[in-house]
Amino acid sequence: MLVLAVFAALAIARLLLIVMNLSDLRRHPTWLLAIAMVHHPLLAAVGVLGGSVAVLIYIRWAKLPLLAVADCLAAPVALGLAAVQFGALLAGSDFGRESASISQLGAVTYSNELAARWSGTPLGVALYPVQAYAAIGALLLAAIAYGWLLLPRRHAGDAAGVWLIGAGVLLFVTEIFRDWEGRGVLLGGLVDTPQLVGLGLVALGGVVLWDWRGERLTHV
């Protein structure tokens, strides 16, 4: 299921990138060789959506219990998010806002031209290392979700609900430190699109945790 999800996410995101830049790629076919290196928030969102749809299709096809599968995926997905953000820190993608001073919350400065070419990262400027904040938060979330999964009595979906709320809060908070270029600024610059998604995740997590399912599970 996860292999299918990763393949779907990568394929859909790259195909969208090709469609959006088809005229340029026709003039410069060799640019296709670097298509995997291009990063954009829209591509990431479409990839996550595509992977999620693949998971739901597989769950329905295999007749698996949705909430139980969601519980099992909560901690591993959080670990995956931590790895993604650590990679983004090294590559310069999903970079933070300009930091007032290099000592402020441990600013990071990029100098590699590939970061600017592939992700639009500003060079020679002190930035918030927001990817590190997100990676640390995702690791903490993975530990919380895994610990919740080990509780002796719980509802199916509890670990997933906790993960959804934690991921939503983490997304909302870390976006405060990110550069909002290309992320869809809304409400006169008060929030960006990922922050609204974060609020939606919190609301969805609350729905999942709502105590309407009756009898609790024993340890699974």
In short:
By secondary structure, this protein is mostly helical. The chain has helices spanning 2-20, 22-27, 41-62, 66-91, 113-119, 130-149, 158-175, 193-209; strands at residues 108-109, 126-127, 185-186, 191-192.
Report what the structure shows.
This protein has eight helices and four strands; from the N terminus they run ααααβαβααββα. It is mainly alpha-helical and 220 residues long. The protein has two domains: 64 residues, no CATH class; 155 residues, no CATH class. The strands form two sheets. It has a two-stranded antiparallel ribbon. A hairpin with a 4-residue loop joins β3 and β4. α4 runs antiparallel to α6. The longest helix is centred in the middle third of the chain and has 26 residues. It is globular. The protein starts with a helix and ends in an 11-residue tail after the last helix. The C terminus is likely disordered.
